[in-house]
Amino acid sequence: MKAARTLMTLLALTGSATAATYTVKPGDTLYSIAKSTGVDAAKLMQLNKLASSTIQVGQKLSTGGSAPAAARPQAAAPAPAATGSATIRAAATRFLGARYVLGATGGGALDCSGYTMNVFRQLGINLPRTAAAQWRAGSAVSRRDLRAGDLVFFNTMGRTASHVGIYMGDGMMANANSYHGRTMVEPLFGNPYWASRYDGARRVLN
Length: 206
Description:
Elements: H1 2-20, E1 21-23, H2 30-37, H3 41-47, E2 60-62, H4 81-93, E3 99-100, E4 105-106, E5 109-110, H5 112-121, H6 131-134, E6 139-141, E7 151-154, E8 163-169, E9 172-177, E10 182-187, H7 192-197, E11 198-203
Parallel strand pairs: 3-5
Antiparallel strand pairs: 1-2, 4-5, 6-11, 7-8, 7-11, 8-9, 9-10
């Protein structure tokens, strides 16, 4: 009887631990785990005291849950749009105010594609180095279907996708602006300069 009670206790503890943690699998990113568990990526970073979104296969992440494992659905619905917006805004804000330097990818200075590359790296997504190469990533998005996290591209040098930024929602975008010499958030279509040079958008966050 004592052995049976001990086994039941161990099973209960195991079920609780399974419900409250997620084991990182090959191909997982912090953003994909946030979508599958319904826990915001920023919250996952806070719960697990992560300094960045870099995660390792086999790593156990706390999801803050406590329901029995059997009661948890196998696949959660995608996170609400508002959650995705908050996640991308948090990642983009981390690099705001950095100096604009052509060709720079860090160390306090970034160019346009260096900025987008660093922001998406926080979400576990590795973008190509240049704006032109990022133009070929993900899938095309029409202007009317833009959502926070979409890459937006512009012809600023007489060629397609010579500049890239990140759509933040509400008609705003974040980018490394060479004219102002820093990374910043500014109007997208409300700015005649950007509106007249807009090439299109690509979605790399599903």
